[in-house]
Amino acid sequence: MGHRGNRLAAVLALAAVVSVAGCGTYPADPSGTLERVAAGTLRVGASENGDWVKFSAASGGGQGTQPASPRPDEDVQGTEAELVRRFAARLGAEIEWVSGTEHVLAEELKHAELDLVIGGLNDKTPWAQHGGLTRVYAESRDSHGALQKHVMLVPLGENAFLLELDKFLMEAKEQR
Fold it and tell me: In whole angstroms, what is the distance from residue 45 CA to residue 133 CA?
C-alpha cells in the first residue's frame, strides 16, 4: 500500500492544484471594478486638501456640498488629481469627478458609488473601515512636523483594481 498510497496522494494533490488553477485569476475583483473601469469610467471622489486636491475658484471651490456633487474635469487640480488622470489614461478610462467631505465620499465608496477617493489621505485615515488603502506612495510633513504617509482609498475587496493602482503609484513614485 506504500506505493499505491503515495500515488493516490500525488493524484489528489495534482487534482487540487488543477481545480484551484481553474477557479479564475488572483487577485480578483468581486464587483469587477478593474474590468468595468478599463476603457470605461473611473468614478473618483475628491476632497479638497491643500496641494493634494484643489478646486478652481471659478466653480466656487470649497469642500462641496452635502451630498457629494459632480465636478467638471478642469475644476479638479492638485497632485493627486494629476496622478488619477495619468492612471485613468493608462486604463483608457474617462473620469467622473465628485466632490465632497471625506465622510460623504467614504460612505459613497462603501456603497459602490465611487471607485476611488482622494484628498491627501494618510495611512491613519479613519475611513479605512469603508475601503481598502493603497500602499503609501508619498510622504509629507504636516504643520506640526509630523510625518504623513499618503494613500488613496478604493472599494473593499477589489484586489485586482487595488493591485493595478498600487503598481501605477509605485512607478510614479520611482519617476520622481
Answer: 14
